[in-house]
Specification:
This protein is of the alpha/beta class and 378 residues long. The protein has 12 helices and 12 strands. The two termini are 25 Å apart. Bound molecules: pyridoxal-5'-phosphate. The site of pyridoxal-5'-phosphate has 14 residues, from helix 3.
């Protein structure tokens, strides 16, 4: 099997698995219990918080463990409720549904939500964000890197302007962590989302970084865990795995990215040879792990299924939500031609992939596209 769907879920890192195992097997204690195993579980959560903080250049008290990227994004968007007398959120048309649907909920509750459109390469321009901010704006939320087309956004510039205008700034960095350096001492963001299963951790954990002093209101109430911001017994195994995984992916970012960019560019070069193919997203402002192509006269879903039969795991635009495939709001926002919207393939790499796999996958994709078009590969 050639696994090219790492943006949907990445393989669990052996060190993450090793960190989680004791808390699935011998130590099942509740980290709030005062006995020895309980205190040991508590120490594992504390250690993971320190690892996450170190990897992001943050303070441990600025890290709040959540159940994943979706919950972290929701909490960040709902923090707009804590900014009194301001009822406007500025976001983009290409955010993950975890941000967009949370914004829609606030719209139902009386907020004004403005979605900024990207340019044809998927880049959001800071001037457009600046023009949308007014005295009523509570929050700006712009993702660091897009999950479908891998476009990197100018978050430092956007964060800087939010700071100047006194507006809270959140960025969803789920796809960016480990692919680009993120240092909270330098990046002017108030909140940042991380999901464990995209970086070698286990599903069901994530974190929201909240800069000290930034306003935040809990969405889940109960026993007061995570300093009252996220009640509920901590998922100790997944939290321990997240601490180990983030440490691993943030260790050698330049080296990993160099390897991944080489594989990515190799794949792009090969797929561009397929007639009537188009690379979606920016060539320069792009995640080192993302390749996204549209092929005219191709049904992307059928292509993904045929590729699966041939041993290649890929996605159409993004991993489908709850089994439902739908046209990509991201590709639609780029103004992609109708004939290309349905024939999209997302291939996302990890450093487990090899050159041989890339060559084999590219050949298989070319063959499947030609077969679907009723042509033969030359
Ligand atoms: N944000 C982005 C950019 C994502 O790619 C995803 C997952 O696909 C999420 C948020 C949601 O993360 P989780 O699956 O941990 O809820």
């Amino acid at each position: 099997m050639i696994y090219l769907d790492n943006a949907a879920s990445a393989p669990v890192h052996p060190r993450a698995l090793a960190a989680a195992m004791p808390f699935i097997t011998e130590n099942f204690a509740n980290p709030s219990s005062v006995h020895t195993p309980g205190r040991e579980a508590r120490l594992a959560v504390i250690a993971a918080r320190e690892q996450c903080a170190a990897a992001l250049g943050a303070l441990p008290e600025e890290i709040f463990f959540m159940s994943g990227g979706t919950e972290s994004d929701n909490l960040a968007v709902f923090s707009a409720l804590s900014v009194h007398h301001k009822r406007k959120i500025v976001t983009t048309a290409i955010e993950h549904p975890a941000v967009l649907n949370a914004c829609s909920e606030l719209e139902r509750r009386g907020f004004e939500v403005v979605q900024i459109s990207p340019d044809s390469e998927g880049v959001i321009h800071a001037e457009d964000i600046a023009a949308a901010i007014d005295d009523n704006t509570a929050l700006v939320s712009v993702m660091t890197a897009n999950n479908e087309i891998g476009t990197l956004q100018p978050v430092a510039e956007i964060g800087e302007l939010c700071r100047r205008r006194g507006v809270l700034f959140h960025t969803d960095a789920v796809q960016a962590v480990g692919n680009i350096p993120l240092d909270m001492r330098e990046l002017p963001v108030d909140m940042l989302t991380v999901s464990a299963h995209k970086i070698g951790g286990i599903k069901g954990a994530g974190l929201l970084y909240v800069r000290k002093g930034a306003p935040i209101t809990p969405m889940i109430f109960g026993g007061g865990q995570e300093r009252g911001i996220r009640s509920g017994t901590e998922n100790v195994a997944a939290i321990a795995a997240l601490g180990a995984a983030i440490t691993e992916v943030c260790r050698d970012i330049p080296e990993r990215c160099q390897k991944l960019s080489r594989l990515r560019d190799m794949l792009i070069e090969k797929l561009e040879k397929i007639p009537n193919s188009r690379l979606n997203g920016s060539r320069s402002e792009r995640l080192c792990s993302n390749v996204n192509f549209s092929f005219s006269d191709i049904d992307g879903e059928a292509l993904v299924m045929t590729l699966d039969l041939m041993g290649v795991c890929a996605s159409t635009a993004s991993a489908c939500s709850a089994g439902k495939q739908h046209r990509s709001h991201v590709l639609a926002a780029l103004g992609l031609d109708e004939s290309l919207l349905d024939g999209t393939l997302r291939l996302t790499l990890s450093d487990n992939n090899t050159e041989e796999e890339i060559t084999a996958a590219a050949d298989i994709i070319a063959e499947c596209v030609a077969n679907q078009r009723g042509q033969s590969v030359i």
